[in-house]
Amino acid sequence: MLMAHPTVLRNLVERYEALRAAVDRGNVDGSERAEGVDPLTRQQLQDTMYTLCVSTGTREIGAALAAAHRHLDTIAVETFETAPVADASAA
């Protein structure tokens, strides 16, 4: 399956988390009602959720976040394992 570039995924996850926090702060009583939440912020959250799902080949935000984190963790490990080792004798 094609997966979005790690930078794109990281940005989407960070954007989702920031928007989710903003929406949750607006819903002070813990409900899913939109009173107190800027409609633009709510729309941006919905758009980001959709993009995360499409980018990860999933249909639910929980699965999309899990897939994104899994992919980002895999890339981080691969990058670490293939990073050149500095020559200590050169110092």
Account of the protein in words:
With 91 residues, this protein is an all-alpha fold. The model has no long low-confidence stretch (mean pLDDT 83). 67% of the residues lie in helices and 0% in strands. The radius of gyration is 18 Å and the shape is elongated. The termini are far apart. Helix 1 crosses helix 3. It has one domain.
**Percentage beta strand:** under 5%
Please give the largest β-sheet.
Answer: none
How many domains is the backbone divided into? Answer: 1
Which class do the helix and strand fractions yield?
mainly alpha
- Helicity level: 55-70%
Would you count the extended β strands for me?
0
Succession of helices and strands: HHH
Radius of gyration: 18 Å
Query: What is the averaged pLDDT score?
Result: 83
List low-pLDDT spans.
Answer: none
Secondary-structure map:
Blueprint: H1 6-26, H2 39-56, H3 61-82
Helix pairs in contact: 1-2, 1-3, 2-3
Entry keywords:
mainly alpha, 91 residues
Quick summary of this structure?
With 91 residues, the protein is mainly alpha-helical.
